[in-house]
Amino acid sequence: MIQLTRIFLFTLLLLSCSKKAKYIDKELYINVVPLPKKVEVVESNKYILLPKKIKVFIDSNEKQNLFDLISKDFKKLSFSNSFELITNKNRSNLSLEIDKELDEEEYEITVNKKIVIKGGSLSAIKMARSTLLQLSENDKGRITLPIINIKDSPDASYRGLLIDLARKWHKVETIYKLIDLASFYKLNYLQFHLTDDQLFTFPSENFPKLQTKDKHYTKKELLSFVDYANQRGIVIVPEIDVPGHSMQFVKKYPEIFSVSDAESGGKDLFGGRVDFVNVLNMGKEEVYTSLEKLFIEVMDIFHTSPYFHLGADEANLKLIVDDPDVKKFMKKNNLGNDVHELYRYFIVRMNDFFKSKGKQMFVWEGFSRNGKIEIPRDITVFEFESLYNLPNHLVEDGYKLVNTSWKPLYVVRSGNPDPNVLPLKWGPERIYEWNMWRWETWYYKSPAYKRPIQLDRDKNVIGAQMCSWEQTDESEVPSLRKRLPSFVERIWNVDKKVEFDVFFEKVNKTDIVLSEIINDKSQDSLLIGFNIIGDAKGNPTREVLD
């Protein structure tokens, strides 16, 4: 293995149509993010210049879309090369092959007289495509590549990014850019937070009043996102956030989803005033059957996802505890007098439904460790606040976790004019210091506030997810483009390979390529903000987000 540092080259091998070699002086930077597991520079003084017409060999029809994508990508990068499919592997300049000897997410790239890309699956080849784009340089419109061997695979199986579409609606064009961003840095999951108290962006045919006017997506648009992502190796995981964060359900269909006095309001989990109950009435059978009808619609659109995110966090159960339907339902189902058992019942029942449809259910950290109704171990928990159930307890109890540590993985509230709601986001260097088994938070009530919770490495922590909450459409790409690479690096390579300055120099180089792919050069200042927190007594204070 060689260190990914600057290597000076003095000549460039040009493979012309006449097969005669020409040489020029050239300086090489191996700028690939995340850093590959193994890189071997075969000839440290040579580049290959691909011919104007690149002949591409693929060994199955399923790679046709990938061939089309590679052709479009290089055109976006202002290369004048054209691509042609051929059936003769020996005459190809570029071949894309599945090698069952490799692991599912493992790929190899060999660049010598031609380029050979092998992957353990089609998904692995799609990731290799991103590496190829990052390696490519332009010589008078022609593609040049270093003569190099790369062998690579990720350490974490779940590499995600959440986009909050339910608080700040995003344009269709922005979502395509975000899919490209995720693919460029080899994520494999993109979570769509489709519903919340503010907006309902999914267009249900069974419950048409749910969708927010002028701020929802059509089914055609959503299917297009799914297909666009799938072509680039990304699975979009839908989230319908229930039973909390459900004001749109309660307001639009009170006859189904509300408690008897929904407008009485109360206090939220942080002590703030809510003027409308935003928790579903889990004491009505019709709520369960209605949700199932809605979820079937959602699953039909997000057909590539084996997962469904239920949300299931921050449900203020005090808002429904006195409802007559709730009391009757709990008595009928022998749930006792603790409304938290109804919440646990809800999670278990929804999980049974998703399993019957061949899906695995995700939830945010929300249920406590203690309770009479057992939460199944086949539910994956997205641990963020370390407040309701600690990560060490969840691992001990046999749950699989996705690390969504509030600090430093949350990217929140850019450009909010409210002086009491200030930016909460951490810079790339701070993110680079985090690891996949570490949880921190700025919230003073959490055990992870004063001292981070650091676990030993455990296979039950299957990966991590960066969460972009409440971002405006305009701020989304600028806020993520330099933060996301640091995050991905720490889960692709859980052991640091280089110092941050060396790594971030590579990010700045790959970011230039990204700008061409997404046709967007907008940047964030990366300044670290402040956030209002509370001291040990609950008095609000301010802290610099280090």
Cα(first) to Cα(last) distance is 34 Å
Structural class: alpha/beta
User: What's the count of strands?
Assistant: 28
The domain count comes to: 2
Folded structure, characterized:
The protein has 546 residues and is of the alpha/beta class. It has two domains: 7-152, 2-Layer Sandwich (Chitobiase, domain 2); 160-544, TIM Barrel, CATH 3.20.20.80. The protein is 29% helix and 22% strand. The protein has 15 helices and 28 strands. The protein has an eight-stranded parallel beta barrel, surrounded by four helices. A seven-stranded mixed sheet has the order 4-13-9-10-8-6-7, covered by helices on one side. The protein has a four-stranded mixed sheet with strand order 2-5-12-11, with helices on one face. The longest helix is centred in the last third of the chain and has 19 residues, at 500-518. The protein is elongated and about 75 Å long.
